[in-house]
């Protein structure tokens, strides 16, 4: 998708001079300033700055400051907008949030922390042997450590006429601007894909004036994140909000007029639905081209180990563009884990015992549609064999459309779906992720943290040390972001 | 001048001075047991709210009231009252498919119901009179029967008895006193020649030895027991002996408990007669004035200590210890109650006890005498007016032609009074089924619950041409069997007099206006009598009836002298009826051998005890050893029935008082630990109880939960007699008791019946709390569900209900897999609620307001919880839980322990403002900071078990009075002190330290 013309007002590529280029030979270069790249830059710089000030205040090695000086951090962003929270684009599209509010960090933070930001600049090639980058503005650029955080691109299914005018994805701020126009004009739109992003887009556009219908190929929406009862409640709610829904509906052809403009969508069952525009929300494709072209091992995504190393020395990758043990990532919490793991590696390169390798944990979902609270975490799909050993505990508040379903296996919570009221989502996520034995509170588990917390904490103090749910920065982030990057799951 | 002053004061004596103008306080009498405690009832004129306390001036209780009496005000709710006369399609009603009438106005009844049809008094009285007259014309006077009750006032009793014996011309009037006191009546008459209790309550304070025979006085007559205990506390030399197969709460205070084999009291007392004689304790001069001494001693001769020990299954030491105590204490009171009377040899038991007093001259003396503790508030009044099939009136004799003639004269009866004994309670079913009785009028009693072979009686009512029931409560099983239902006034409305166990006549006064169109029972009888064309029923007021009754007791005293001579007593008393203060006829003591005794000389009765008194059971020897039958899943046991501490009769009144339902809220069968082990059941498991002997309604069965306790003997089992179809299904214990009556008193055996007990496998338990407004509709649903049975004849649903402070608790259980799995579906309960909400006949409160329902379910754990709320405000529906009413909470689980305790939940029915989340309701408790007070132990002061345990463990209380000081438990009637002592034993750290 083309980037918008206007550049960020405060971050300009012209601000970077040659001297700084030379410094980068020892420095850390991050390609991609999305949620993974920008977070890495800020957090890494913060750690180094703290170490720096500690060293200085201790007064040691004061004759040798040059060697101890923290490496330079360079952040290269293809988009002109650096470090915004993509997750928050749905509320922006719905007109509930301004784009300015989606920045993860204050723009001044980059300057204060001495991070070089190259915005609206692409990387053409990586010379892995010489540790150099070729930029699309013709510059060359050295790196000491390179981090690839190129993220992913919205997937487009190549239906006939998929390139027609009026076919869109919903991925970045430019898409938001374009789609908002349709809504303002009260156009009729179809969203292909009833995943998180598709539903968020449909609701946002509907609330802005568009007549929206979601086309979903599976039996019910969010079928990877929700169980059937929750999905049915969600579908009812969507219909109440005027969002049309076609489930078990396979799209076949995008219908166009003579001017190659979208006029509708044909389905396998023979029907054709009229539409002024179509949004494809059918998942993401990791951006691996640069890595592959540079000889870095790529499977479905860039292959890294648990310490975020690619196959090449000094080259790391994080975020939605990587795979670890065949697992792809679309949720912000795993991306944050990537960042945390990599920071340990970069700040303690020689002390492997300090590293904290990435561990895959079940993920939580939250839907960002105003007034619809949906949460899911852990495993919620089961085959028949699994179903036989998994216990389901259900809570339902019928007239108020609340539904909770907990999946328990061998005294552990392994999955949770919450609909309508999601206050205990964080609590359940923690139980799932930390694999806490819930046998002592099983009878009360469905009633939430208020009924279980103190008992579990007593159990913890007996068994020693499981951190309480809410402390420190980890939690602050969790509460802000626990949720979906828009996501692999929509296909 | 003094005289005038006295009269003036007396005239207001029934209205106690009130501190505030708007409060009116009335002196009246408690309607429960035979102690007959005085009650001060205060009515707030502006709110009509009633409060009660004990009357400090009443000589029975001096201001004290027991748990039941203290909670009287809680039982006055109009929602359980019958308000209008109606006709009923009794067969439809007996199928349980129609609710009991919850009408408040005549029109709702007529419009909405087809099973019952309202009628006005004029029409129904004409109709009753006409149908009774026609029955008499077609089938003779012997085809009509009245079955009346010790709940009636003396005036009611008198009119009923007069109508039947003097005018209809039949003696077919019997009272539920037949089940209660008739052995005592027969025993008194055999021994003293008249139905006399020779002593006074003061004897309980004056005696040195109190022997309780077949009486759990701590529970059943707690106020009188309290008087003895107080005296014993002041003088610890006073002794208490309890003779009872069960270790009841009374034993807690006893110096000696004799857990004898059921039915062996006569053996024990024959042995005592011999022992007292052999050891020189005979009062020769007194005994010389008695008859039958030689024969009685001859009959007792065989009963050596060893023989008694062998028969009673007591040790020789126990027996001897008892005999020594009696021998050593000339001031002995032997108080007996249902354990003696309700026996197939009840009259012999009574006389065996009285024999020991006649032999030793311990009759009618301060602190000495045999003392019959009557069960009902006015059993004595009924005996005075002669409202039993074998009595006449005014203590005259039915089998004496001159007496009959005198009464007929007095009444100006159209014909002479019949000589033959009328149909008695336990013969009524057969008399109806054989076609001899065509019309029966049942008044103020619930025989479908209380009679042995209760299902046979129910069947008889179904077949009877005309069944009339006069009642005040609509929750009576017997009402469902009526063709015509007549609403009678209940306590607080009606006015008249009652006689207590010490022959003391007290006034019951009305303090509230009659509910609906209800009428006094005397009025109903008198109206029917007039309409049948009889003269002599033109009463305007109960005082006229009382004076007529008093006049009859005095009638022809010179020709037929009787101890009962009320006209003389009243004249001496000098008070008008309205302000009449408690009056003990016959004086404080009646010394039966002296000159003032007007009948024949007292008699010792020679008694030959049955050889195997205890062996009622073909599988069970008297000592409880089982001969295991071939089907060894069942266990043969001997059933003893009795009371709970806080319930009365069939609970139509006490079950309305929330606190009185806390001590025990489900039907239970108490088994000895060994019996439970043999049966393979644990505490709280369900069992099915069936009759072992073959009587016609053998198919009847009872479901109960096991309470394992060594307070019953091995081989015995105990079940409360209170449960009816109104409060539980399959819990009428009378249905499995065969009809075996005492040959003299015709009182049925209710304490020694052969039963077979079989474990019932329950797979799913439920607990429902429901708002009172919805109860009726819920009960209709439950009755429909419980009428279904599985292939093996096991009911698909076992339920019982228990009124709480702000809701009604329903216990559910099923052993049916299909029902259990239905209960685990949301759809089932949604449908359940929908059917109730739709019920047009009994529309729950504002059913049009929208309902909110929430559920929690774990299929693998087989648990479901379902909560229904309703918006408090119709116009502004809300999702705010705190602004809703709680309608119903339903909890289903495979184990009872998984169901939440109800204490906090119950409070939510009154106030949801402190319930922030429906999850609290589903969880059954607040998220934090809540301590459950536990099972209610003290029903008077409302103190729970956990509170008492806390007083013991945290505050170091190690006796009951310390506990009482701290938390008030046990400080009113004291009937829970035994339980508090048990808790101290179990929880006191001092005790534990001592054990360690």
Automatic annotation (TrEMBL), chain A:
GO terms for molecular function: oxidoreductase activity. Keywords: FAD, Flavoprotein. Residues 366-436 form the NADH-rubredoxin oxidoreductase C-terminal domain. Residues 28-322 form the FAD/NAD(P)-binding domain. Gene3D superfamilies: 3.30.390.30, FAD/NAD(P)-binding domain. InterPro entries: FAD-bd_OxRdtase, FAD/NAD-bd_sf, FAD/NAD-binding_dom, FAD/NAD-linked_Rdtase_dimer_sf, Rubredoxin_C. This is FAD-dependent oxidoreductase. It comes from Psychrobacter raelei.
Automatic annotation (TrEMBL), chain B:
Residues 23-80 form the 4Fe-4S Mo/W bis-MGD-type domain. Pfam families: Fer2_BFD (PF04324), Molybdop_Fe4S4 (PF04879), Molybdopterin (PF00384), Molydop_binding (PF01568). Its cofactor is Mo-bis(molybdopterin guanine dinucleotide); [4Fe-4S] cluster. It comes from the Bacteria. The keyword Iron-sulfur applies. GO terms for molecular function: 4 iron, 4 sulfur cluster binding; metal ion binding; molybdopterin cofactor binding; oxidoreductase activity. The keyword NADP does not apply. InterPro entries: Asp_de-COase-like_dom_sf (IPR009010), BFD-like_2Fe2S-bd_dom (IPR007419), BFD-like_2Fe2S-bd_dom_sf (IPR041854), CT_Nitrate-R-NapA-like (IPR041957), MoPterin_dinucl-bd_dom (IPR006657), Mopterin_OxRdtase (IPR006656), Mopterin_OxRdtase_4Fe-4S_dom (IPR006963), MopterinOxRdtase_cofactor_BS (IPR027467). Keywords: 4Fe-4S, Iron, Iron-sulfur, Metal-binding, Molybdenum, Nitrate assimilation, Oxidoreductase. One of its GO terms (cellular component) is oxidoreductase complex. GO terms for biological process: cellular respiration; nitrate assimilation. Belongs to the prokaryotic molybdopterin-containing oxidoreductase family. NasA/NapA/NarB subfamily. This is Nitrate reductase. It comes from Psychrobacter raelei. The lineage of its organism: Bacteria, Pseudomonadati, Pseudomonadota, Gammaproteobacteria, Moraxellales.
